[in-house]
Automatic annotation (TrEMBL):
One of its GO terms (biological process) is cell adhesion involved in single-species biofilm formation. The keyword Signal applies. Residues 232-383 form the Fimbrial-type adhesion domain. Pfam families: Fimbrial. It comes from the Bacteria. One of its GO terms (cellular component) is pilus. This is Fimbrial protein. InterPro entries: Adhesion_dom_fimbrial (IPR000259), Adhesion_dom_fimbrial_sf (IPR036937), Adhesion_dom_sf (IPR008966), Bact_Fimbrial_Adh_Pro (IPR050263). Signal peptide: none annotated. Keywords: Signal.
Length: 383
């Protein structure tokens, strides 16, 4: 009985073993079949690590002098760049996983560019604001992907991926920048971080969003500080003493007085500068030209029916029937509201300049006695 029972139990275990073994074989076959049907990306991998240095510095001039009224969009520096580096990261890649380089703005550079651009080798680079009002920075560059160089690329698109497997896939790039005038410049120092570069990794070609790997190491880009100054001359106010005149000094309506008063417009202590002889597009460094214009305090202060005659200031004791007209050193009437060049100006030399002028009363109607004062404004444009 005991032997029979023992035999029965042994037979039961063998059947169970065969069922279990059969199930395991079927399971293994299913696993192998499923593994063979998986897409290649399911087992493709990448492992990237950064290589020193992790900080690159763009070397700008220490100082940049800007003519105050230089047109917006004018370059303020030549192009500067980091070295073309082909191995920000080294990656081990299997089954053609996508890897690459992507640049993003950082530090003093906002995410949205201005409306200005600057052309680099035929490619328009967008200009971003900096920490100094009126001074922007054009940004772009190149991308290196394991033997492939792409660019120049503008900054919003400064990134590239490529699928190539291997034990040493190298990815890198180059950042290129230039300072640009984007508005009224406030003197200050442009300095700070500009951008960062990330290892761009994904199973399939995809956007950088969600596919950048900070763990592989972040490459940082900053700049040498740039002190920005604004170039102008000193232009003091001018008081012209016209003296006392009588009706006999005025020949008739529509003609100037027989008497005139001399005075000078002064441009003092104009600074010397140095032009950029390498990048001809860069207009910073000196005042290239000075223009000036003279206007009444408002357009309605021009006497109707007469050319370039300014009405007297308002007042209860003002004289009537006269205005004021200006003449240059050659006796020609000065055109109002019109820019005129400062003759003889040389922006490479410091100096002061003086423009000889004369003022005359001009009869516009029946003369009545009183004070005959008038005010005009001089606007100077430094470019």
């Amino acid at each position: 009985m005991n032997e029979a029972n023992a035999f029965y139990l042994e037979g039961l275990d063998m059947k169970t073993f065969r069922r279990i073994a059969s199930a395991c074989i079927r399971l293994l076959f299913c696993c192998v079949t499923a593994w063979m049907l998986l897409p290649g990306s399911a087992w493709a991998t990448s492992s990237c690590h950064s290589n020193p240095p992790l900080l690159f510095t763009l070397k700008f001039p220490d100082r940049i002098a800007v003519a105050r009224d230089l047109p917006d969009g004018s370059p303020l520096s030549g192009w500067v760049s980091t070295p073309m580096t082909n191995n920000y990261w080294t990656c081990v890649v299997t089954q053609q996983w996508y890897t690459g380089t992507d640049f993003e703005v950082a530090g003093i550079i906002p995410s949205t560019p201005t409306s200005f651009t600057r052309s680099y080798n035929g490619k328009s680079f967008p200009v971003y604001a900096t920490n100094v009002p009126g001074v922007g920075m054009a940004l772009g560059g190149y991308i290196y992907n394991n033997g492939r160089t792409s660019g120049p690329l503008d900054f919003p698109h400064l990134g590239y991926q490529w699928n190539q497997n291997g034990s040493a896939v190298n990815n890198g790039g180059q950042l290129i920048a230039s300072l640009v005038k984007i508005g009224k410049v406030v003197p200050g120092t442009v300095t700070g971080q500009l951008a960062q570069a990330f290892s761009w990794e994904s199973a399939t070609k995809a956007t950088p969003v969600g596919n950048l790997n900070p763990g592989a190491g972040i490459i940082n880009f900053d700049m040498t500080p740039v002190i920005v100054t604004v170039l102008t001359c000193q232009t003091p106010d001018v008081d012209v003493v016209m003296g006392t005149q009588s009706p006999a000094d005025f020949p008739g309506v529509g003609s100037p007085s027989n008497k005139s008063t001399s005075f000078n417009l002064s441009f003092n202590n104009c600074p010397a500068g140095t032009a950029d002889t390498v990048d001809k597009e860069n207009l910073a460094g000196l005042i290239h030209s000075i223009q000036y214009r003279i206007d009444p305090t408002s357009p309605d202060r021009l006497v109707p029916g007469y050319t370039n005659v300014v009405a007297l200031d308002d007042g209860v004791s003002q004289a009537g029937g006269i205005g004021i007209q200006l003449y240059d050193g050659n006796g020609a009437v000065v055109p109002l509201a019109t820019y005129m060049p400062l003759g003889g100006f040389d922006g490479t030399k410091s100096g002061s300049y003086s423009i000889p002028m004369r003022a005359r009363y001009f009869r516009t109607g029946a003369i009545s006695p009183g004070t005959a004062n008038a005010t005009m404004l001089m606007t100077v444009q430094y470019q």
